[in-house]
Amino acid sequence: MSSTPRRFHPWVFLVLVLPFGVVNGYTVVTLAFELKAAGVDVGPITMMVAWSILPQTWKFFWGPVVDITLNQRKWYLISAVLSAVGIAAMGFFPPTRAGLAALSLVVFLASLATTFLAMACESLIAHATPDEYRGRVAGWYQAGNLGGSGIGGGLGLELAQRLPAPWMASVTVGALSLLCCLALFWAPAPAKSFAATGVVRKVRETAVDVWQVVRQRAGILALILCFLPLGSGAAPFAAMAGEWHASDHTVALVTGVLGGVISMVGCFAGGWLCDRMDRKVAYVWFGLFQAAAGVAMGWLGRSESMFIVWTLVYTFGSGLSYAAFSAFVLEAIGKGAAATKYNGLASLSNVPIYLMTMIDGWSHDKWNSTVMFYAESGLAVISAVVFLVLAGILWPNRSAARD
Question: Domain for residue 1, yes or no?
Fold first, then answer.
């Protein structure tokens, strides 16, 4: 795109963040489907998925490490290797009830490694992207995240179904994710956020930079949005696909490669729209779109065709929401200690995702999938109302223009 800075193209960040998505996809698609096939209930499966989200809710505390040590490229390489090892390790433990504890630990450690990979990418984006293009770049970035989740999960499931041993699938997917490091050759030069020497001074500058974001109204509104369960995309489609009579191939396609492509389209559309309207309001509307898809899936009939249609619509909504999230966060944080600030907000936003994952699993097993979708969608609607009320109180005379 000619309108973006010449020193990099947004596709670079799509590729760089793919391993982040692949770790998630292998967990929520490949492992979830295999565990369900082995007779494990949806509740324990969503508990394993929740373990993968847990490091993402606390990563703010080690965000300053990326800002004050090494540089973004070095952190990316270290975390990419560890993430690939984590993916490979997932195939060495049986996807059964007996192996669930070990799998949960491996999933947790692999997710922990991806936190540093994402921080390196987000810091580079914050320093290299002008404000007027942050929606577009956010769309490409989240396309890599969600696309990697869909493609990695679908590829992992196909390979696990076809290869004689589970470790062959995980090692293959892990090795492919490691190839994403090649995109560093086209990435922006590492930014030096702090010219000062000495850890104490860097830590102090980081703290001041974070405070400048929190004390502004734009930062407060972003903070509020992060706590609301909007656009969470937490529904466990692979684990409950049997209720819609979906075949193994359909699950691998819809929650995998095709779902990844659809979510990427949603990211591109969401990023484009976020450069043309208020980014926080866009996030609310996109969350409501996904909520409507959830209601439709819970209300309409149970058939394979309905599974395909509404899973993809819901997935498209996830793409819209994730792009809007990155766009409004990048708008709020500016530059400086970018990894710390971005991941401070991202950590908070993963708290409602973690809780919705637990709520979805609990409500599904206690009642059924219809109640699960209604509960998730109802919380999204309540969240939208809460945000609009609080935004009106905090910023009553704000115009429709972006911050």
Answer: no
The CATH number for 164's domain is 1.20.1250.20
> What range does the domain containing 146 cover?
11-394
Q: Would you say the C-alpha torsion 389, 391, 396, 397 has a positive or negative sign?
A: negative
Q: Which tens digit of pLDDT belongs to each residue from 334-377?
A: 665 566 777 677 777 888 888 898 999 899 988 999 999 999 99
With respect to residue 4, please indicate whether it lies within any of the assigned structural domains. Answer: no
**Separation between Cα atoms, residue 77 and residue 181, nearest integer Å:** 7
pTM of the model: 0.79
Please tell me the distance from the alpha carbon of residue 218 to that of residue 238, in angstroms, as a whole number: 37
Assess if residue 359 is contained within a domain: yes
The per-residue pLDDT for 350 is 82
Question: How many distinct structural domains can be found in the chain?
Answer: 1
Query: Taking Cα atoms as reference points, which of 350, 369, 158 lies closest to residue 247?
Result: 158
Residue 344 burial (CB count, 10 A): 24
Are residues 343 and 290 in contact, defined by beta-carbon separation less than 8 angstroms?
A: no
pLDDT at residue number 234: 87
Q: What number of CA atoms fall less than 13 Å from residue 393's CA on the CB side?
A: 9
Q: Residue 25 and residue 149: Cα distance in Å, rounded?
A: 4
Indicate the DSSP class of residue 232.
Answer: -
* Confidence band, pLDDT 50/70/90 cuts, at residue 210: low
Q: Determine the pLDDT at residue 66.
A: 82
- Residue 214 in any domain: the answer is yes
DSSP label at 186? G
**Which tens digit of pLDDT belongs to each residue from 175-192?**
999 999 999 999 887 765
- For residue 90, the 8-state DSSP code is G
The confidence score (pLDDT) of residue 378 equals: 94
Contact 189, 348 (CB under 8 A): no
Helix (H/G/I), strand (E/B), else coil: 103: helix
DSSP conformation letters of 346-385: HHHHHHHHHHHHHHHHHHHHHT-HHHHHHHHHHHHHHHHH
Q: Which two tokens stand for residue 68?
A: 């004050």
Residue 255 has pLDDT above 90, yes or no: no
CA atoms within 13 A on the CB side of 257: 9
How high does pLDDT run on average in the chain?
A: 85
